[in-house]
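Hey Z.,

So I finally got round to the ribulose-5-phosphate thing we talked about over coffee. Here's the setup:
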Amino acid sequence: MTQDELKQAVGDAAAQYLLPHLEERTIVGVGTGSTANCFIDALARHKHLFDGTVASSEASAQRLREHGIPVYDLNAVDSIDYYIDGADEINHRLEMIKGGGAALTREKIVAAVARHFICIADQSKLVDTLGSFPLPVEVIPMARSHVAREIVKLGGDPVYRDGVITDNGGQILDVYNLRIDAAITLEKQLNQITGVITNGLFAMRPANTLLLGTDEGVKTLT
Ligand code: 5RP
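And the result:
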């Protein structure tokens, strides 16, 4: 199967996974990216079964609205049972690198609220050690060079993602050449650098479930 077919398969599988849990008052957290888009399209078939969504980006909010699915401000909802999102890399502890689509901060906020984080990914995303994919770090623009110098001290090679402004008005540094053996420690270290909005390591709050698209079908890992 192609990577796009695997993304479609896990998007469909996530919608099927949610079906028994969808009720009149259910709010679904929705992530960002091409895999999340597959999920949005699959979820749209069941839009009459639940209340609405909270989106982790303006792009996902727009796609949801185009399907006629209500999108709420996170401050307007009391709780989110399920958050469904993709990842750039995920390890066997279900720790992730996210932010390839520059939505990491809002993704991390919605994931923090959600009781259950379901990661949807094709088989190419599952790794033994995080770090081959450059780690995105969102920064306050005036702090970009300072943050980059501090990241070099931690052993990484930060590269400014030129021309990208996030939904929060931040900029992105993509950090190369990190071998991430202690993801929680690094996640905390990076967040302590003044000027960092957040970083794309999801280790303090990993996924609860991984729906992995493989050539043998969608596998569920917990
Ligand atoms: C966006 C993300 C995405 O989940 C991640 O980049 C994976 O994207 P895709 O499903 O397109 O491969 O973190 O900020």
